[in-house]
Here is the input.
Amino acid sequence: MNSPLNISRRTFIKATALAVGGLVIAFSIPNAKRFLLPGISDANASEEASKLPTPNAFLRVGTDNTITVMLAHSEMGQSIWTTLPMLIAEELDADWSKIKVMHAPAAPEYIHTAYGIQITGGSSTTWSEFDRYRQAGALTRALLVNAAAKKLGVAAESIKTENGFAISGDKKISYGDLAEAAAKLETPKAVTLKEPKDWKIIGKATKRLDGPEKINGTAIFGQDVHFDGLMTAMVARSPVFGGSVKSFDASAAKKIKGVHQVVQVPTGVAVIADNYWAAKQGRDALKVEWNLGPNAGLDSKALVSEYRKMAATQGLPAAKAGDIKTAASKATKIIEAEYVLPYLAHSPMEPLNCSVRISQDSCEIWTGTQMQGTDQQAAAKILGLKPEQVKIHTLFLGGGFGRRANPAADFVSEAVQVAKAAGVPVKTVWSREDDVKGGYYRPMYLHQAKIAVDAKGLPVAWEHTAVGQSIMLGTPFEAFQIKDGVDATSVEGVADSPYIKGTPNHLVSLHTPKTGVPVLWWRSVGHSHSAFVMESLVDELAHAAGKDSLEYRRALLNDHPRHLATLNLAAEKASWGKPLPKGVFRGIAVHESFGSFVTQVAEVSVNKGEVKVHRMVCAIDCGLSVNPDSLKAQMESCISFGLGAAMQSEITFKDGMVEQSNFHDYKVMRMADMPKVEVYIVQNTEKMGGVGEPGLPPVAPAVTNAVFAATGKRIRTLPIGNQLA
Amino acid sequence: MITLNINGKDVQLDAPDDMPILWALRDVVHLTGTKFGCGMAQCGACTVHLDGQAIRSCVTPVTAAVGKKITTIEHMQNDKVGQAVQAAWSAVDVVQCGYCQSGQIMAATALLTSNKKPTDDDIDAAMSGNICRCGTYPRIRAAIHEAANKLA
Here is the structure.
């Protein structure tokens, strides 16, 4: 009962198949794409996800009054460790000080309610779990109330609950004292959730539950896993993507004290040692000859030229209306522009790592992962086990940003291969250099647009061509995300842009080249490039029309109240149009992503070619905000992440190899460059959206639009770097 | 064998002379609060105090610590300034993923030990070697000011 590490899921409350009923919910879940990955998990996964939750899969009531919440999602900084327990505690009327939290194992109960696989991503956790976690809390409360009623010989309706107690008249029984009796009762067939007006926890700024252990050094990340017999491995990988081992000489490596084995694995050569230092020295001493393969000539400059050539021709259509040619021929003015964005590494602070212990009929994995579902499948396949024989222990993630959710399960698969080849438990650790050079980047993108405007300066024809790799191609998501050759995530924010949809004649087309560079979703996915392009283009149109950037957007977004609400709020808080200190200029950008709407106003000065961002004002509409303080933290986080990328980050290739290696040349945001950030929340009862990513897309264009205001120079290539020098 | 003074205790450990303090702490003594982030003094996740000075333990060999005192995040609860910094971190709810925060707290504690009332520029200078990919910088800045006020 009070042993949360026991993951047998049906010991506390007997679950029966339940029908959803009697729910009183004022906030709806957006119509997420529901899909089930082929070959993933069991056939009734979507059915699992839609029925009332098994409460004991999500929480345990201990006889010591603790409430242990099991997280179906991974804590990687976004504060889900606090937000999901808030949902349970609200309905359970729990004593917040008694809440304990742990990551759930990989199991069908924890499949994402919308995505059909156990995953943390898409800024979806809070809205996708809003019902399930509240229901789990309400079902458990009902059981505890019924147990109290039985014990006191009163009607269940006469019992109130408050702060971890069932109360009838002057009698109070703690949840802990009711837990064993409640475990023997039948789970109710339906529950009524609280009305929003009765919420005491949801909507209140709440401190993080993982704060204390992350402040005193006791929080355990994947990197911190240790048990007797666990070795450390480092893998030498091909310097060019797609290369393979021709031969290797391990004699010098094996002479390093602490090195035990050198084994070949599909991704390279692994050095297995007592500790990281020995493994690293062993790997440094290793001599490997590589077959560099077909990508040995990869060169970023050449790749941009190739993309440019492709953009000169029409790609596969992603959105189409009217007749662009006829409309363009009648236009007052044509505005043409090309935008280029680089490959980007996620570079979470915790370098990738994964510990694996294999026995005859099972495998245990300790890691920080966003995608237990595919990791479990991949490990099982390598070892010839069933998925349920692979037990995944999710530790705190030292950042994710998408890198730890890989459909290819790269770092987990490799670690399983290493442990299998070595025959001992092994933690495979990546160095920072391995991380920066290791691929699975945000893909490089080139966009070209040709926009015809009328006499009022409004767009009448918009031709837009995007060129960039697909992150979905070759993954289990391909069937759902790629339609008629167009990866929806490659053109999100363009094909569905209100600016383009509002232009009567438009054609968005896409080229999807293959380069051999492994690519992946990077915080805000396609919006990470599309918002920069769209919000810069609209700024170009406003300037060409001689209109104010804010007014011009207001005109184009007249029928988009949620965009408008954030535009107006941010503009008001930033005192748009009012004087600024000498040399400081404003830029604005608005973008919808992951069901949320965000406007940012950047205040920027440019001195001797150097851009300084002084202040970022951010307004967000994400519908209901469960924890307004963690929402603000996510906006601050998105702004920092987005600014680093806009100003300095890029991965480039020469002779097939990545030119960057560590934080000295893969530059990210640092304290001295961080502006003052203000976050304002649009209060409403609209559909809930996400918050982990939507704050990022407007960052770069808000800044570069301000740079244009300051200098008259339009930044069309990121990062800004030294373009103004 | 080498003898190091870690958090006030002499510890004998089997570590080669060139092993960075970081790996001696993490892999030999199993004090894992100090984090590995870059291995070349670029990110500050590995920050510890050597005789009270903030150092990057990923590039400092164990031999450099002989006869000196190493202090890590695990000991901050016993340090007056460290306590104030940790309390401020909690009051401002600074952390997100948390991985860099040991290093941030060690750097902030060293700053406040030598500079009781740091300005924003002082904070920039002292803290820009500590990367946080989650972007907790505004809250770190606020927490350092808060701790300075509490210590004053």
The beta strands of chain B are 2-6, 9-13, 47-50, 53-56, 69-71. Chain B touches chain A through 57 residues (CB under 8 Å). DSSP finds five helices and five strands in chain B.
